[in-house]
Amino acid sequence: MRMTGAGYTVVVPTSGRNSLQALLSSLEHGAGPAPAEVIVAGPVPDLPGLSVPVRVVAGGRNAGWRAANTEWVVFLDDDVRLPADWRERLATDLTGLPSRVAASYGHLVVPPPTGGRRPADDERRCAERAAGWHLSDFACRRDVLAALGGFDERTSRVGSDFVLRLRRAGLDWERGSRLSLQPSRERGFFDSVTEQRAHAGDAVLRRRYGRTWRDLTDAGPSPMGRHFLTTAALAAASLAGRRRGVAAAAWLALTTDFALRRILPGPRTPREIARMVVTSALVPPAAVLSRLRGEIAALREKPSAPKAILFDRDDTIIVNEPYLADPKLVRPMPGAEQVLRRLREAGVAIGVVSNQSGVARGLITEEQLTEVNARVEELLGPFDTWQVCVHGEADGCACRKPKPGLVRQAAKALGVRPRDCVVIGDIGADVGAAAAAGAAGILVPTEHTREEEIRSAPRVARDLTEAVGLAMGERAW
């Protein structure tokens, strides 16, 4: 695949900072394919004249990518700077990526302080964030953005939420070879305190994706344990009692240690020392209050149930009999009848998406296939749609899983979007088809499932009942 100028659109979410002009100038000058368009999302100052079309839209990242018409959308923060080879490296990063790779992000470099000065606390934290996953220089396939509904801008952890949804859909992301610079900007005295608002998003992500969400996004260890301990000591010290002095001493020791760990690596100027002393006392309670607000928001957030659940047939809802041609041999999988009945009672559409290459191989006839599927419905009840691929691997059809055809056809027949469906199956092709169509996938391994399929699956359930429970959400189910 050759990368062309029409292959990507640059979206720059901005709050109107003057740094935007420098970014656009650095984007224009360089080798490699130019973007088809630059979309600036947000209020802007006067823009420099560019050789590529520039459009301004109201809103943020979501408004920007929805206005794009190219295969790839590249998001750039308005304060990054691009080296002369950025466009060239971007083309290299995006060319030939397999379909399972939905996104690519660049290396973000934070220049060290000038004059040999040690970096201040906020400069060190900026460099730490730049070393991991980020949205500052992030490219994503537009059809994936559309399938996932874009970014959830309600949460303070926008980037982490998005990559977790990518992982849940069975998609990957890769770090590219391109570099971008993010110069440190002067921070306000209390910026480290106001940044604690982000901890509200931690509770929401834990509720949505489980306790391992930080490991899945390389977010690093959480400081909340220590912040909770420091805040508890402060609360105990404010209460009357014989142990008030002990609590006060514990709070002072914890706060002093926190301040020293922020002061000693830095420039140790009077202003920096004063800022670290004051904010080290304020950060823990600010973080705890933010986290508590997030916990309340997470409790109020209702899990969104899918509008349709699509099942593979063999070894998922019925026991696998190779090239099954005799309806008398149809046997339901354990729990299949019960979960299907409950889904019908809950008003959730259900369907079957099944590869049946035995027809193409001449091992069964289409009439026998129809009789077997009719027997499945006799034993398990009616399905709202059947989508079956009767082609062989060499036929080059668009429907054989892991291609998305069956899932898309089922969604269309049910009058829903693929993103509102969950596909449940026993092999990698099932969850692969879900991901390719923009649906969620859940793997229920059997003795025929390969280990690498289990490792790469976005979600794995022990049995069919657990898989449907995961699809519906604990409360909804």
From TrEMBL:
Gene3D superfamilies: HAD superfamily/HAD-like, Spore Coat Polysaccharide Biosynthesis Protein SpsA, Chain A. One of its GO terms (molecular function) is phosphatase activity. SUPFAM superfamilies: HAD-like, Nucleotide-diphospho-sugar transferases. It comes from the Bacteria. One of its GO terms (cellular component) is cytoplasm. Residues 58-95 form the Glycosyltransferase 2-like domain. Its main location: cytoplasm. Belongs to the GmhB family. This is D,D-heptose 1,7-bisphosphate phosphatase. It comes from Amycolatopsis bartoniae.
